[in-house]
Amino acid sequence: MKITEVVITPIAVPDLPLVNTKGVQQPVFLRSVIEFKTDIGLVGLGESYGAERTLVGLRKVAPTLIGLDPFDLHGLRQRVETALPEGGGINAPTMLTDHKLTDVVYSAFEIPCLDLIGKKTGRRVCDLLGGAVRNEIRFGGYLFYKFAKLNLDYGPDMFGEVMTPDALVEQAKFFVAEHGFQSLKLKGGVLEPDLEIETLRKLRETFPDHNLRIDPMGAWTVPTAKYVIDELDGILEYLEDPCRGMDAMAELANITDVPLATNLVVVELEQVFEAITKGAVKIILGDHHYWCGATGAVRLNHVCKAANLGLSMHSNSHLGISLAAMCHLGAASPQLTYDCDTHYPWSTKEIVKGGRRSFNEGKLRVPDGPGLGVELDHDALSELSDLYEHAMVTDRDDTDEMLKYRPNYIRKVPRW
Ligand SMILES: [Mg+2]
Question: Which residues of the chain have pLDDT under 50?
Fold first, then answer.
């Protein structure tokens, strides 16, 4: 089996003004959809980021993959590194962390290879990753403060404005009723810390048995984070990226017993060792989009086990190809003991045949396969590809978007 053609389709998907500490999400989020065509007629699918830097990297590497055997993952890595000798990151300067372009491009192209291997051998991707230790993956509800949507050109709003503790609890009630989530994560660092403390206390009153987390994305100084922890005594399952940077995380970790989790200070293997040496985090969020594909994200399991760290799963806004890959990775991740993050319920679009998947008590069954077990809906793809052409958004910039809602906004991390 050889790759004969690589098709990369950037798409724009209607999004909502979900607020975070660096700004607010734009009217669309961007993804790239990848198809590997082969000499035996099989097609492998992948989905990755769709912003400019990622697309440039994908397009530089794509022509060098012609003739590659999808089983040859080391060959894939070599071709990625040869085509991108300058390396570089993928993220805009307004983001809070960066990922190596080579890791992101390898990750984006590994999934269609695994999909092809699975289709060729009649096996699920999770079987290729060491086998399924579970067949249902547990996801948590991802809660956001949000503005009422200003621009309705690309799709309707959900919930209107959610900028108070009570409104946030109503949003959580909806997600729990609709999807059955048993864990809830609040994207924090948006309101004054006392209001976010009040939000979590009200969530605890409403959901006495749910696992609760907050992720302020580095918005707090160490003393502020310690204050929040003391006020939320016994409420948090874990606290994700309360402070900005490895040293601030380590300083906080030394004065609290609440487990600190991260998808900002540990995003590649080299940083695991620094985090362990400094005692900065107890839990790492894996993600097959940048931890060197699904095979790299499985290797992270072994690293976490050896280092006595917990493993959770990170999410960006995504659609069904990524969701299928997340399910296969979750199935093949023995160290994964926390419910996975997903932005999926915030979107209403889908690009795979059969349409949107439904959570059952917060869980999804791993697709049957072979491969990822999803097929591309080309009509749906071309609708979102058209939106990409019309929306005129080629990069993510939450800070710039925030100025449309709050003209005097100044980005500041940490803010409190
Ligand atoms: Mg995070």
Answer: none
